[in-house]
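notes to self, project folder thing:

trying the whole complex as one job this time. last attempt i did each chain seperately and stitching them together was a nightmare. two parts in total, labels are on each line so i dont mix them up again. if this works i'll redo the older ones the same way
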Amino acid sequence: MIKSMFRLGITLALFASGACVALAVVYNITGPVIKTQEERALTAALKDIFPESDGFSDITKELQSSDPRIQILKAYAMTKGGSLIGVAVKASGPSYSSNAILLSGIKVDGTIKQVRVLKISDTPGLGANAANPGYFVDKAKKVTFTGQFEGKKVTDPFKVKEDVQAITASTITSRSLSAIVKASADAASAYISQKGGAK
Amino acid sequence: MKRSTAVFLQGLVIENPLAIIMIGLCSALAVTTSVANGIGMSLAMTFVIVASEFIISLFRKLIPESVRIPIFIIIIAAFTTMVDLVMKAYFPDLSQAMGVFIPLIVVNCIIMGRVEAFASKETVPHAVLDALGMGLGYTWVLVGMSVVRELLGNGTILGIQILPESFQPILFFVLPPGGFLVFSLFISLNLFLKKKWLESPLGCPDPEGGN
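result (full assembly):
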């Protein structure tokens, strides 16, 4: 009885270690690629939001989220020739199926420059359309869900069906994403006014 | 017909994992909202089933009866994690679009079912042929469904506008109820093909399997 238990245990352990070795190999090959992919995506996203900037610095510790459910993961002060031109905030908050991560750019004049979806795992074809560049909430004007935030004032209400157009059949996603943008914008504008950047 | 050919063809229509055995439906209905997702999911799933059936058939004499299920799960989970990592590294967009459904291949009943019912008892070549047949059977239904759903629900295929701009997309097809409707149409199509297949002398009138 004990003998057979040992035998089974050892067999199981052997298969598990075999699987571990195989996974370790694959992880070691793909790990660095995944990391550079993520870094490249971040720098590209920052450059994309503030193309005129020539430098950025990490200011994550100086920002505080106004909403307890929303976490500010990273924040960058975007500069041009040494002076502040805006703030980019990477924030995570609960969405329909799990947390979504957005990158929002806020200009020193208190308007939203651009919003990008970095991670969303909501229903493909519905909530996930928030990140789809071919999905328009305003078909006539070809405005995407995140596109509609461009130029919005930080002080706007950011309420779905009032000043934010929802993604069809995805009200929860639309609401959560708007809340993340709002929290990011609040935190960024607090930083901007503290630095006396607003002209 | 040789046994190996029969084993391979089995999964395409006669024992199609989705349309006849009807297992692994959850992810099949969820990802078929766009063709890119359908193709990605089919490839990932086919890779995992072929690799798992191969390894399990290879070691079938070393796997003790009483702990076979944990061992199957370890092997399937290892291959699924590999697919997930490779997709994250080389196809980040697709990986993002598929979200949680790639890790969930681990619990996909098709793989567990074929491994338990077939690979654990058969020789390696037969197990691999069975896996390929099942994988292809899964693929044609999944890709077919996603073509119908994306075309009618969004007017596009692979993100390229096919129907004229004036066509108002029928959102119903992208939503879950549309998924069930399209799936039921594919079940009927498959049953029709199965009937034709069994009536024909070769048992194979259309090698494409209605692709």
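what i see at first glance: The radius of gyration of chain A is 22 Å.
need to look closer tmrw
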